[in-house]
Amino acid sequence: MSFATQHRLKNDGLISRRNFIASGVSALAVSGLVNSSSNSKIHYNKFKAIAFDAFPIFDPRPVFAKANQLFGEKGIELANQWRITQFEHTWLRAVAGRYKDFWQVTEEALLFAAAKTGNVLSNTHKDELMQQYLSLTTWPDVVPSLQQLKQQGIHLSFLSNMTNEMLNSGMKHSGIEGYFDHAISTDRAHSYKPDPKAYELGTNILKLKKQEILFVAFAGWDACGAKWFGYPTFWMNRLKAPEEQLGVKPDGTGQGMAELINFIR
Fold this sequence. Notes:
Blueprint: H1 3-12, H2 14-22, E1 49-52, H3 61-71, H4 73-96, H5 102-117, H6 123-131, H7 142-151, E2 155-160, H8 164-174, E3 182-185, H9 196-206, E4 213-217, H10 220-229, E5 233-236, E6 252-254, H11 257-264
Parallel strand pairs: 1-2, 1-4, 2-3, 4-5, 5-6
Helix pairs in contact: 3-4, 3-6, 4-5
């Protein structure tokens, strides 16, 4: 499925998403290409570690492609609803204190999305779609950039809503285990970003101050959540989505790993 199709589908979900925000829960967005920028208050040479959300590294497009393959045009609608429900349910569970891990939330969101979009989801199709999250590969620009970052002596980790099994499976499938010092799942906090308890795992596990850790977000809402927590933040806006209007901006933005490396320099 093309980026243009994904962008159209994202816009189709904006009304329900904004209603969700109005109910008191933080916003969803895989949010617009903007040029790399900086904040003079951030001391870039002080970064000792980078904490990545999963999707600046892993390419989620095969998940949508599999839905399209199985269900055609209705699969596009299914994939879009699945993604929206997935994150709405993490926020609802975090706010209500009704935690289930991201694998379970993802499966439940898929079942709901299939029912809402009128797709008959067999157990075989469910398993095929879920399996995509265990066999993710990296975006094309990732591995060379990880090599550069490691050469600079920067410690690399994940800080993701995904379970450890999902993160470790993606790293193994992509052959990037050797680049990462930690795969931090918010499962350890029994909560989800943007709950401060989820972001705090980074400082606790890496044993560093907030200002020494650069958080790299895939979604606009995650970039805002990390800034609210106090991390220097880079928004890797691979899907060219619009900027969130939450009263806070990331310290740097760009579409890929090259912009991230330039920001650090």
